[in-house]
Each structure stands twice: as C-alpha cells, then as structure tokens.
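Good morning C.,

I know you're traveling, so I'll keep this short. The sequence:
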Amino acid sequence: MRRSALFLLALTPLLWSPLPGAEPDPVVDLLQVARDQDMTWQRRRADLILDLTHQDSERRIAALRGIGDLQDPALAGHLLAFLEPGTPDSEIIEAALSSARLKNAQAVLALRLHLTNPNEDVRMTAYLALEQLSGASEEDHLARAKDQDPTLRRAALQRLALFPTAAAAPLLIEGLARNPDPRLRRLCALGLGRLKDRTHGPALQVGLVDGDQSVRLATARALAALGYTPAIPVLLTLLEQPQSTPLAACLKQLAGDDFGYAAARNDQERRQAIDRAWSWWTRNLTRLNR
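The tokens, ready to paste straight into the viewer:
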C-alpha cells in the first residue's frame, strides 16, 4: 500500500502535465501566475520587514517608504516604532508618510507628539499626516498657525480658512490684514464670511482696500453674506473705479437694489447709477450704518 502511494505521488507531475501536442489549460496558467505573484509579494513583504532592522539608515528609510508603497495595512504596526522619540528625523518623516498612506489610526497619538518636534520638516510632515488621517484637532490647527515655520503656518491658516471656527477668527482677521500672500488673504476673507458673525464686519472691511482685486471681491462677497450694510459706502467708492463691476452683485445683495448699475452700460449711465445709490444711502444712513 505504501509503495502504491509513493508511486502515485511520483506520477503526480506527469498526471497534471499537458499531453504532448495538447493545448495549454488557461485556468492552470492563471493559477500559476497568481501563485508566482503571491510568492513575489510575500518575498517583498519579508524583505521590507527585515530591512527595517538593517544597520544602514538609508535601507531603513527605503523600507519605510516601501511599506507605504505596498499598501498592506497588516504592515502598519511595524511603522509605530519609527515614530517614537529619539528616532532619526528622516525616518520619522518616512514613517509618518507611510502611516498616512496606510490610514493607520494607531499612529495619531505619536504623530500629534511630533507637532512640537524641533525639526520643522518633521512638524510639517506630522501635521499633514494627521490631516490625511483626520487626526488633527482644532487646537492643533490653531497652534500650527502660529508656528515659526512659514510653510507650516501657511498650511494651518489655509485649513482654518477653509473650515473656520469661532476660535480661528482672530487668526483669520490677522491673516487678511497682514499675510503677504493674496491667495491666503482671499481665503481668510471668505473664511470670516463663513462664520456668519456680523461682528467681524469692521475687521473684514480692511480687505475692501486690499491691493489685490481677488481679495477685494472675496471681501465684498463675505460682507454681503454677513449683511454688513456699513460697508456700502466703501463698495460705492470702489464701483467708481474701473474694473470693479463684479462688486455690483454684492451691492445689490446688501442694498436690495442695483440702482441701474450694470457692466454693459456706459460710463455715464454707471455714474448716474452710483449717484442714485449715494442718495439712497444718505436717506437711510441712520438705519443702515450700524
């Protein structure tokens, strides 16, 4: 019996081999390809885990990056040790990036600790990784908006402007008034408008005299969204200048009337419309200027 079993085992490859001249079985071919790919993947996985313990830092960094590329959530736990304090900065950065790519929520606590890392590249990477993982709190954004690194300040301020909260208002007001980047000033103006707090109207008016046209328009839209009627005189003054016709829609939203002002009209007709608006303002000054 034992000899018969051994004989059949020896014949197994022959039994499964195609007969001479026979067409290859596509199902068998696909299974073989799948087995080969699985073996390649398993070897790659094992090599990456082994390289994490390599004495050469560059090999460890390459392995950390490779784990992110492999997109295997089962490997995410191997990254946590590289987020510990005392790890070389370059390895922390790669571990943070791969943790974000693998959506590893277990890394959130360690990443938040690195928001105060002395290295600005580590702080920035940790902040962006937390954003990817939705693990950054409002306090994190507020603190990073005051960071000494300008790139990190910019990223945090942009986040606060796009998703504003009441606590962010002072930073948005300051950003509108002082940030050198017109794109960020524009976002700050829109962010203040999203807060729907009319008390920010006076601070928002700074944007109406900004040197950048896109900032002026964003500010006008924010003021209109707040219903801040004391801004109407500044809007009327701006409408007297060339290329300010987009502001007319904001005037109509605040006043409930465009007074016949339209971009298609000639200069004289637009001037007459502005005069009518000034007359209306004067008559309603007491009611509107508050």
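Safe travels,
E.
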